[in-house]
Design goal:
The protein has helices at 9-25, 34-44, 76-98, 103-115, 160-170, 178-187, 201-219, 234-240, 299-304, 307-317, 322-333, and strands at residues 57-64, 136-142, 148-154, 175-177, 246-251, 257-263, 284-287, 291-297, 341-346, 352-353, 362-367, 372-375. It has 385 residues and is α+β, with helices and mostly antiparallel strands. Helix 5 (160-170) packs across helix 6 (178-187).
């Protein structure tokens, strides 16, 4: 009896393995028909491509990942204000780099500019806590020796990133919080302010809208108000960015990397809440061999996912490029934990990526030859790209 070669077996086994993998990936709570499984698996894959946004970048900044600015509803004046804000931050960092300064000084200068701009949720434009106060967080990290500094829950430092830098340079610690952080900054000559310095009308209106939405939910009304202020008001636009942060990453002429992040937190957050921004390895990370990264988005998720450290580890231990590593963390892993956001990630060779799973992310970058690019609308920076 002649036995036919089993040429059919390999493709059959491959098909069976694919079906099995799809079945194992299904969430609990019900089976799908076999013919739907392949389509379901395809639908679950993130869209977009893991490829760098730019090369030869020396400095990048972000102004938060929120619901994004709508091109059709954003006035030319407001568009200019956002682009100018990002450009001014890039300009501040560029002055440092052009003079041969360090990447640490460059990211601090860039973030300080963003903290001074009331459009962004950091420093002057920080959101309100549930008790109508302001508690600000920031961190900074140097890639050459992994030295870092951070402050959390500060209430009187005009520029929290300066406090983070002071902790890094003037103490043996990495993170100081609350009154101790404020006092430490004041003792080291940092500018201090009273709480009213941080006040802006748009952020106050956003808090009032959040309080009203909270009351509606408790009373059973719910509805659209629960999502925050409606319409195209400054409060609505401000609240859309309220889960955001500001941040910067840079590489200097010595190929040293640095990253910094600063935030006012979440509108109506509980007093004492600390997000990812002041946590090294969550909101901020820099290592010369891999990446400088600053994150923005759902802070609790970025903490649980150790977002920026994981990005660096993927590059170091799996040997993947910055774009693939950032895409893996931001687009594929973090949404599975229940939150979205984005990251600016810069490799020591100038390869840059800014993926996000949120609808938009305000950011900009500067290339080695002096080109400045700002992106504020979703069609300029599609999600999952």
């Amino acid at each position: 009896m002649r036995i036919r070669p089993l040429t059919w077996l390999i493709p059959a086994l491959a098909t069976a393995a694919a079906v099995t993998a799809t079945t194992l990936a299904l969430p609990r709570g019900g089976e799908r028909a076999p013919e739907d499984r392949a389509a379901a698996a395809a639908d679950a894959r993130p869209t977009g491509k893991a490829r760098p946004d730019a090369r030869n970048v020396v400095l990048a900044v972000h102004g938060g990942a929120g619901t994004a600015l709508d091109r059709d509803k954003t006035t030319p004046e407001r568009e200019k204000a956002y682009r100018d804000g990002l450009t001014e931050a890039l300009g501040a960092g560029r002055k440092v780099l052009d003079k041969g300064g360090s990447s640490v000084d460059a990211v601090q200068a860039a973030v300080t500019k963003l903290e001074d701009n009331p459009l962004f949720n950091a420093g002057k434009g920080a959101v309100f806590t549930a008790d109508a106060g302001h508690e600000l967080d920031a961190s900074i990290m140097r890639g050459s020796d992994l030295k870092a500094g951070a402050v959390a829950g500060v209430k009187s430092l005009r520029n929290p990133v300066e406090g983070a830098r002071a902790v890094m340079d003037e103490s043996k610690h990495v993170l100081l919080a609350g009154e101790g952080a404020d006092d430490f900054g004041a003792r080291h000559g940092l500018r201090t302010v009273t709480q009213d310095y941080y006040w802006t009308q748009a952020r106050w209106d956003a808090l009032m809208a959040a309080k009203e939405a909270e009351r509606d939910v408790k009373s059973g009304k719910g509805g659209k108000r629960a999502a925050g202020p409606a319409g195209d008001s400054p409060a609505a636009l401000a609240d859309a960015q309220s889960k955001g942060t500001v941040g910067a990453v840079a590489v200097d002429k010595r190929r040293d990397l640095a990253a910094a992040t600063s935030t006012g937190g979440l509108t109506n957050k509980l007093p004492g809440r600390v997000g990812d921004s002041p946590l090294i390895g969550a909101g901020t990370y820099a290592k010369n061999a891999t990446v400088a990264a600053s994150a923005t988005g759902a802070g609790e998720v970025f903490i649980r996912g150790a977002a920026t450290a994981t990005l660096s580890h993927l590059m170091e231990f799996k040997g993947v490029g910055v774009a693939k590593a950032a895409y893996e963390v931001i687009v594929k892993r973090l949404p599975a934990l229940g939150g979205d956001g984005g990251v600016i990630a810069l490799a020591p060779d100038g390869e840059f990526d800014a993926p996000h799973s949120s609808p938009g992310m305000l950011h900009g970058y500067l290339t080695e030859d002096g080109k400045v690019v700002t992106k504020i609308f979703p069609d300029e920076t599609p999600p999952n790209s």
